[in-house]
Design brief:
single chain; 220 residues; mainly beta; Thrombin, subunit H; Lipocalin; four-stranded antiparallel beta sheet; 40% strand
Length: 220
């Protein structure tokens, strides 16, 4: 009879390699509103989006030592995105492109000023174009290198019209779900209308591509 050892259960302390207390944290991270990790691990660094008070931290991946901390106004989003040597992070009203080695601002996009909360969406990048929605129902396409607006589209004119989801790019189309119970698609480069699909309820999560199908989560 073959003897099978019982699996060993390890405590959190046994699994911990290092521990770092981030400075000035009230609420560490938001629940995820997309499939991106927070912290984001890349090469020898970890990038952490701290919700309250808003900040982005860069840590040494092997030791947890702080490299830099960049304060953002009010709150920070649920994740960061790294592309072509730029770290993208957002507060409720501004999208920032930062230097990954220092946290210095390269450019920022603040469509409606710093009062109020206008950006709950997270950015997506395709062919050096950056896509992000806002709570006025617009989807913006920006040049990811400069932050200049390439095009903006009004997805709908309903009362609850926010675009809080993270855009997805599939077969050259940029697709977003909205709080207005509609999913819309545009030509990613030109912004031309492609298609529109109604759903049962407001959607803030997705769209997600799986096995050739596009999934959108509607609120219950």
């Amino acid at each position: 009879m073959t003897h099978v050892e019982k699996p060993r259960t390890l405590s959190f302390e046994e699994l911990t390699i290092w521990r770092t207390e981030l400075p000035d944290v009230n609420i560490a991270v938001l629940p995820p509103d997309n499939t991106r990790p927070n912290p984001l691990a890349l090469d020898d660094k970890l990038f952490v989006s701290v919700f309250s008070p808003g900040a982005i931290c860069a840590l040494q991946r092997d030791s947890g030592g702080m490299i830099w901390r960049r304060e953002l106004q009010k709150f920070s989003g649920a994740s960061v995105l790294l592309h072509s040597g730029r770290l993208f992070a957002n507060s409720p009203h501004t999208l920032y492109a930062l230097r990954p080695d220092s946290g210095e601002t390269l450019w920022s996009f603040c469509p409606y000023g710093t009062k109020g909360e206008w950006i709950y969406s997270s950015p997506t990048i395709y062919q050096d174009k950056l896509y992000i929605g806002d709570r006025k129902g617009l989807l913006h396409c920006l040049d990811s290198g400069t932050g200049e607006t390439v095009w903006s589209k009004c997805t709908n004119r309903e009362g609850n019209h926010s675009v809080n989801s993270t855009p997805a790019v599939v077969n050259g189309l940029v697709i977003v779900s909205t709080n207005a119970k509609v999913v819309v698609a545009y030509e990613a480069i030109t912004g031309e209308d492609a298609w529109e699909q109604s759903v049962d309820r407001a959607s803030t999560f997705g769209p997600l591509l799986h096995n050739g199908l596009l999934a959108v989560a509607a609120q219950t």
